[in-house]
Amino acid sequence: MLAVLRIARRELVEAWRSRTVPVFGALIVVLSLISLGAGWTRYWALAEDQQAAQTEARRQWLTQGEKNPHGAGHFGSFAFKTLPPLALLDRGLDQYLGQWIRLETHAQHEADGRPAQETTALVRFGELTPAFLLQSLGPLFVILLGFGAISREREQGTLTLLLAQGVRPWTVAAGKLLGHVVAVTPLLLPLAVVGVLALVHPGFGQDAPARVALLALAFAAYFVAFAALAVGVSSMTRNSGLALTILMTIWLAACVLVPRVTVLAVERLRPLPSSIEFLTDYDAARGNQFVVGWGGFNSFNEVFDRVQRRLFAEYGVDRAEALPVDTFGYALEETERMGQRAYDETYGRNQRVIEQQEAVHRTTRLASPLMAVRAVTMGLTGTGLDEHMHFVETAESYRRAMMNALNMDIAHNARDPNYDVRLRNRAEYVRGLDLWERIQDYRYTPLAVGAVLERHRADLLVLGGWLCVAMAFMTVGVRRACRRP
Amino acid sequence: MWRVVWRQDCKELWRSRRLPVTGVLLAILVGLACAAGASWVRFQERAVGDVASADQEIHSAYVRESAAYLEREGAVGRGAPQDPVSVYWKRTFAWLPPKPAAALAVGQGDLHAYYAAFHGVARQVLHYGEEIQNPLHILIGKLDMTFVVMFLLPLLVIALAYDIVASERDAGRFALLKAQGASVWRLSLARLALRYAAFVLFLASCVTAALEVFLPEGALTNDTLQFLTVSAAYIACWFALAVLVNTTRASGPLCGLALIGVWALVVFLAPTLLHTATERRHPLPSRTQQVVAAAAFRADVHNSRSEHLARLLDERPDLRAPGDPARAGHAPDWYPAFIAYQVALEREAERDEAGFARVLDAREQTANRWRWLSPAIVVQRATQRIAGTRTQDLLAFAADVDDFRSAWLEHTRGFIFRNEYLRPEDFEAMPRFVPTEPSRRAASWPATLIDAGYLACVAMVLVGWSVRRLSGS
Questions:
Q1: Is B60 near chain A, with CB under 8 Å?
Q2: CB distance A60–B295 less than 8 Å?
Q3: In 3-state terms, what secondary structure has residue A446?
Q4: Residues B208 and B223 sit within 8 Å (Cβ to Cβ)
Q5: pLDDT digits over A137-152, tens only?
C-alpha cells in the first residue's frame, strides 16, 4: 500500500513539473468555473422570464372576458418549458429544442423558439459549459497526464530499477492510476460547487443533490476509464511518442469521429421523413379537414351530421329539439379527436423512428464513451430529448383536457335546438371566469431521477463496461511491461 | 539539394508508415465527408422537388376544380374552390434549392428553413418548414468537408510534421549538418514545401474524385475551387505552425504535444469563447415575453377589429372599391374585419422581429469582426459563405418568403374585400414563387481571397519567424 502511495505521489510530482499538464488542467478548471458563473446568471434570468411568461399567460386566460367556449379555445394559452437548474452545467439539446408550445383548438403546434436559430454559426463549435469542457477536453488532459506513465519509465530505465526493488506489477498499475486520478480530481470542482449550491439553494429541486452526485460518479468513471486506458497503452508501447499517437487516435475516434459517423449511419439506416412528406402524411391522416382550401367548412358539416345521427340513436330521438345535449359541442369534440388521432398516428411514426435511431446510437456508444457520458449528463441535467418529449406530451395532454372541458361545456349547457349548421344561425352562448378558472394552470413537472436512470441504464452500463475493459487492459499491459521491461 | 532532401524525406515518411497511414486516413475521411454531404444535398433536392410539385399540384387543382365546380353547379356557391375565402386557405409554398457546394459545408442548413408553407390565415401551417431532424444530430453535427478541414486535417498535418526539424535534433544530426555547412532553414523549408504540396494536391484529388462519384455536378465548379483555396491556406497555417514549434529546443514528441494543445485552443476553445462573448455582448430580447405580449396584443386587436378595419380602409381606400356583382363571392361579412385584425398582427410582428433581427445582425457582425482570432472560425465562415449555408443566407430566404407572402396576400385579400370569386385569369395572375437557382448564387472570389489571403499571411508570418529562428540557431 505504501508503495502504491509513493508511486502515486511521484506521478503527481512529475505531472506538476511538466508545466504543460498543470497549465492545461488549470485552464479547463478556470474555464469551467467561468462558464458556471455565466450559466448561473443566465439560468436565473431565463427561469424568472419563463415563470413570468407562464403567469402572464394564465392571467390572460382568466381575464379574456366573456365569450363562447369555442372562442376561448381559439384564444388558447401557452405551455412554457421550465428550464431545469442543472442546465447551468450542460445546456444539452436545449439550444435546438423549442421553449414553448401554443395551446389552442384545432391544431397541435410544434414547440417553438429554438435558441440556436437566433445565434451565429459559432454555436456549432459547442457551448462553453462545464459539461462540454469535461466531456471533450477532460479525456485529453487525462491522456496528456498518462501517456508516458510506463513508457517513460522504460525509456529512462527506471522501470527495471522499480521491479528490482520488488515492486509488483499491480502495485505499479495501481500507483500510476491513483496518481492520475488524484491529478484529475480538480476537474470535478465545478460539479462540487453545483453540488453545494444544490444543497443550500432553495431554487434547486429536492433531487438535485442526488443528480449532481450521480453526475460526479459518471464523470469519475469516464476519467478513470481514460486514465486506465492511457496507462495500458503506455505499457504496451516502446516509446512515449507512439503511446501519445495511439491515445490521441483513440480520443479522436471516440470523442470526435464516431459521433459524427454514427449520425451519418443512423440517417442512412433510419431516416426521418422530410417536412413536406410529413405534412402530406398528416393531411392525409386528417382527411384534409380544415387544411386545403375549400371543403373545410363542408367537412365540418359532414362531421356535424354524423355526430347528430349518432346522438339521435343514443338518445332514441329523431329531432334536434328532443336531444338533451348540444350537437355542436360534440361535433367540435369529434373534430378535435380526429385531429388528435392524426397527430398521434403521424407524430407517433416519427417518434418511433427517433426511438429506432436512439437504439442505433446506444449500440455505437460502445465505441464512444463520450456519447454515453453525454447522454447521461443530458438526462441528469434535464436537457435531453427525453425531458423535452415529456414536456411535449404533458403539454398536449393538458391541451386535450382543456379543449375537452370547453367542448363539453358547450355540449351540456349550450342547447340550441334551432341551430342549423348550414345557416350558421347559432344563438350566442357565452361563459366567463367561472369556466376559465375551472381549467387548471399548466405546470410542468420534470422527470424523476429514477425515471431518468431507468432510461439511461444502457448508457450507465456502457460507461461501466468501458471502465472494466480499460482496467483489465491496463492490468494486462502493465503485467506484460513488467515481465519484459 | 532540394531533390535529395525530398527523396530522403519521402523515404523516411514511408518507412515510418506516416505517409501511407496519413494518406489512407485522408482519403477515407474525404470520402465519408463528401458522401455525407452529397447525401444531405440530395435529400434537400428531393424535399425541394416535392415542395415545388406540391405547389404546382395545389395550384392546378384549384384551377381544375373551379372549372369542374362551375360546370357541375352552374354558379359559384359557398365553399367553391374559386370562392375568395377558399382561395385564402390555399396552401402556397416557397423554397430554396441547395447549391452543390452545400455538400462541402452543411452549415446552418439543418437548423433553418429552406422551404416554407403558408396560407392566408397563417405563415406556418403545421410545421415551420424546417426539416425534421433528430436534435441530437444537430448537436453532434454532420460529417461534412468543413468539419474534416477544420478539425481533422490539422491533426493529420501534425502527424506528418510534428518533428519536421526536431527529428534531426533528436537524432543528433543537427551538429553534423552545421558542420557540413548545410543550411538548416533551407532544409526545413524544403521539407515543408514537399509535405505541404503533397498534402494539398492529394486533398484536392480526393475531394474532386469523391465529388465526382457522389455529386458530379459539384465536382469541378467555381465554388469547389474556392473551397479548396481556403482549405489550402488553412493547411498552410498548420504546416507553418509545426515548423515554428519545431524551432524550439523541444523534442519531437513534445512538439507534437504543444501542437495538439494549440489545436485544442484554435478549434475548441477560441470559437466557444467567442460565441459566449458574442452572446453576452448582444443579449437577445426575451422571446417568451414577446410571445405573451403578442398574445395580449392579439386579444386587444380582436376586441377592436372594427376600428382596425376603419383604419385600414382609410390607409387603403382602394379596398373600399365595390366588387363586380356578376362575380359575387360568399365571403362572410366579418372577413374584412378579420383581415384587418391580421394586418395589425403582422405589423406588430414585423416590429418585434426587427428588434430581434437587429440583435442577430449585431452578433453576426461581432463574430465576423473577431473571426481573425482563430483560423478555424475563418474557415467555417468562409466555407459556409461559399456553400450558401450561413445564417444570413437562410434568413435572406426567409425575408424573400415574407416578401412573396405579402404580394400573395395583397392579391388574394383584394378579392375578399371586393367579395369577388376568382376567374381563370385571376388564378393565372396569382403570384407564384420563383426560387433563386443555385447558378445565380455563386460565391464571390474577392471575399474568398480575403479569407484565404489572411490565412496565407498567417502562414507566411509563421514561416518567416521560423526561418529567422533557424538561421540564428
A1: no
A2: yes
A3: coil
A4: no
A5: 899 999 988 988 898 8
